[in-house]
C-alpha cells in the first residue's frame, strides 16, 4: 500500500513536471540574472560610449535598448523605462543621420516601444518623418553589396533586424498599411537574394555567396542569421492576422529555426560560423541569444512544437547564463563585424546584452503562462 502511494505521488509529480515544460528555469532565476546583466550594462554605458565612440543612437545601442525595454516591462517600477526615456529625450527622439541606411533607423524601435507605454506622439514624430520621406523617395539602387549606393537598400542580412522591424511597428501603432507594404517589397527582395533555400540559412551579403569556410562549407555567419531570427519574431508580432503574406513570414521563420535548432552544439551554444564549428570552436553568445529568443518566441506562440524545441531552447538559455560573469557582464560576444571571427570569454558588446534580455523576457513570459 505504501509503495503504491509513493508511486502515485511520483506520477503526479512527473506529469506536473512534464506539463510545465520539463524545465528547471524558474521565474526568480530569470529575473535575477536579467537584472544583473541589465544593471551591469547601465553602469558600463558611459564607458562604452566613450571607449568606442558609439553615439547613443547608433544601431549597437539601439539593439541594447530594445532588449532593455522588454526587460523594463517586467520590472516592478518604471526605473528602467525612465533611464531609456531620458536617453531618447536627450536625442530629441531622432534616429541617426542616414536617411536610407538601415542601421540608422534601428533606434526608432525603442521610440516605438516607449510610445506604446507613454502614448506621447512627440516620441514618434521624427521617425514618422523619416519613414514618410523614404517611402515617397524609394531608392532604386542594386542590392549587390558593392554596387553604388547599395546601402540605401537592405542589402545585408543584419539590415532585416534594423529597419523592417521599425516599419512593422509603425504599421501596428498607426494602422497605416503603407508601412507594411513598403516593408513587404524590400524585405522579400533581400530574402530572395541572400536566403539559401537548400541550407535554409542566410548569407550575410552578396560577397559571401561564393565564399567557403576552411572545411569547404558555405560561409553562414552566426549573428547574421540571429539578426534574421530576431527580425522575424518582431515583424510577425506586428502584422495583423489577416495580412495577406503573414503566413509567408511564418513559413520562413519555421524553416530557419528548424535548421538553426539542428546546429546547436553539445554545450547549448551556437558559434560565429554556423557550419564550421571546428575552425570556430568557441561559443558566440549574441547569435545564441537571438536564437534562444527566436525559439522561445515561436514555442510560446505555437509556431514551433514545444516537445521538440523546448529542450533546445532551455539548453541554449542555460549556456547563456553560464556566459554571464559574476558582475553581470555577458561574455563571448563577437565584436562588430560581418563574418565569423574568433571570440573570447571576456569579449562583450551592448547588442549582446540586448539579445540576452530579449531571450530572457520571452522565456519569463512563457514560464509565467504555464
Notes on the structure:
- The chain has 370 residues and is mainly alpha-helical.
- It contains 14 helices and four strands.
- The chain has helices spanning 2-19, 27-52, 59-72, 79-90, 108-118, 125-136, 159-162, 164-174, 177-194, 222-238, 246-261, 285-301, 306-322, 350-369, and strands at 195-196, 201-202, 270-271, 283-284.
- The strands form two sheets. The protein has a two-stranded antiparallel ribbon. A two-stranded antiparallel sheet has the order 3-4.
- β1 (195-196) and β2 form a beta hairpin.
- α10 runs parallel beside α12 (285-301) and α11 packs across α12.
- The chain is globular and about 50 Å long.
- 46% of the residues are buried.
Provide the fold topology.
Elements: H1 2-19, H2 27-52, H3 59-72, H4 79-90, H5 108-118, H6 125-136, H7 159-162, H8 164-174, H9 177-194, E1 195-196, E2 201-202, H10 222-238, H11 246-261, E3 270-271, E4 283-284, H12 285-301, H13 306-322, H14 350-369
Antiparallel strand pairs: 1-2, 3-4
Helix pairs in contact: 2-14, 3-4, 3-5, 3-14, 5-8, 8-9, 8-10, 10-11, 10-12, 11-12, 12-13, 12-14
* Oligomerization status of the protein chains: single chain
Q: Which structural class best describes the helix and strand composition?
A: mainly alpha
- Count the E strands: 4
Cα radius of gyration in angstroms: 21 Å
Query: What's the mean pLDDT score?
Result: 94
Order of helices and strands: HHHHHHHHHEEHHEEHHH
The portion of residues assigned to helices is 55-70%
Poorly predicted tracts of residues: 1-22
What percentage of amino acids are in beta strands?
A: under 5%
Shape: globular
Which strand order does the major sheet show?
A: 1-2
Alpha-carbon distance between the termini?
33 Å
| Largest β sheet strand count, sense and barrel closure | 2 strands, antiparallel
Q: State the helix count.
A: 14
Amino acid at each position: 500500500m505504501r509503495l503504491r502511494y509513493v508511486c502515485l505521488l511520483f506520477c503526479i509529480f512527473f506529469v506536473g513536471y512534464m506539463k510545465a515544460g520539463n524545465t528547471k528555469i524558474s521565474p526568480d532565476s530569470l529575473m535575477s540574472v536579467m537584472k544583473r546583466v541589465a544593471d551591469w550594462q547601465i553602469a558600463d554605458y558611459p564607458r562604452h560610449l566613450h571607449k568606442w565612440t558609439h553615439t547613443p543612437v547608433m544601431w549597437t545601442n539601439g539593439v541594447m535598448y530594445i532588449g532593455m525595454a522588454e526587460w523594463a516591462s517586467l520590472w516592478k517600477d518604471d526605473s528602467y523605462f525612465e533611464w531609456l526615456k531620458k536617453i531618447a529625450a536627450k536625442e530629441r527622439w531622432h534616429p541617426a543621420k542616414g536617411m536610407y541606411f538601415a542601421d540608422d533607423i534601428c533606434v526608432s524601435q525603442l521610440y516605438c516601444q516607449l510610445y506604446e507605454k507613454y502614448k506621447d506622439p512627440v516620441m514618434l514624430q521624427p521617425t514618422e518623418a523619416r519613414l514618410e520621406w523614404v517611402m515617397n523617395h524609394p531608392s532604386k539602387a542594386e542590392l549587390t553589396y558593392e554596387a553604388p549606393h547599395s546601402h540605401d537598400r537592405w542589402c545585408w542580412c543584419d539590415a532585416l533586424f534594423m529597419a523592417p522591424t521599425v516599419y512593422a511597428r509603425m504599421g501596428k501603432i498607426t494602422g497605416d498599411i503603407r508601412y507594411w507594404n513598403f516593408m513587404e517589397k524590400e524585405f522579400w527582395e533581400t530574402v530572395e537574394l541572400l536566403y539559401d533555400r537548400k541550407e535554409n540559412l542566410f548569407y550575410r551579403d552578396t560577397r559571401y555567396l561564393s565564399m567557403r569556410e576552411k572545411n569547404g562549407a558555405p560561409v553562414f555567419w552566426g549573428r547574421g542569421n540571429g539578426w534574421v531570427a530576431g527580425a522575424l519574431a518582431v515583424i510577425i508580432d506586428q502584422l495583423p492576422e489577416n495580412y495577406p503574406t503573414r503566413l509567408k513570414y511564418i513559413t520562413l521563420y519555421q524553416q530557419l529555426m528548424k535548421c538553426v535548432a539542428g546546429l546547436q552544439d553539445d554545450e547549448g551554444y551556437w558559434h560565429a560560423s554556423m557550419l564550421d564549428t571546428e575552425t570556430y570552436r568557441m561559443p558566440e553568445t549574441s547569435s545564441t541569444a537571438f536564437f534562444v529568443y527566436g525559439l522561445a518566441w515561436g514555442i510560446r506562440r505555437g509556431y514551433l512544437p514545444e516537445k521538440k524545441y523546448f529542450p533546445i531552447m532551455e539548453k541554449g538559455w542555460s549556456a547563456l547564463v553560464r556566459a554571464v560573469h559574476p558582475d553581470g557582464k555577458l561574455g563571448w560576444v563577437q565584436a562588430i563585424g560581418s563574418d565569423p571571427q574568433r571570440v573570447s570569454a571576456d569579449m562583450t558588446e551592448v547588442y549582446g546584452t540586448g539579445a540576452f534580455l530579449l531571450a530572457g523576457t520571452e522565456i519569463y513570459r512563457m514560464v509565467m503562462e504555464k
